[in-house]
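Kindly review these tokens for lecture notes.

. . .
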Amino acid sequence: MTNCLSAIYEEFNRYIYHLCLKLTRNTAEAEDLMQEVWVKVVRNEEQVKQVDHVKAWLTTITMNTFRDRYRKNVRRSKYMMSQPETLDVPILDLVPNNDISTEEQIEKDAVTKIVQEKMLQLDGIYQKTLWYFYVDQYSLAEISTLMKVSIGTVKSRLFRAKARLKEILLSDDNIAEVVLPA
């Protein structure tokens, strides 16, 4: 480590440690994070000479390193459960299955059919707005271009259409029981 890096380390060591501690809320993790930060600083020693605000540069490195570690942990925890050292189940059983069950698909289809039937009771302009937004998945800007109105008008039509559709759905006693179970 050069004299320049030694001076930077001496000056900002405590600051980086406290920032790491604030981010991780754990002394062991803060020390690990701090070590990663200083490794990155040493690896990018050439850039130090070009930096005008060293403290801001170090803060950015610390924040980015923390985010990277957090994302890595989230990805890892999504696919792996906490298990003892020896696994009694195949590793593929630990991978989440994002497919919906047959019962959920039937229920989803039934609800979709009910909503589409009730949409027919709406005024044409509201039907079109809901259809463009939720079924065709157009953006508000695209809908405003298609319907030749402002984005604000599209937003208000969407709001009114949803409110009216909710009223229609809740006025039907059979549907109200399914939509809002007691």
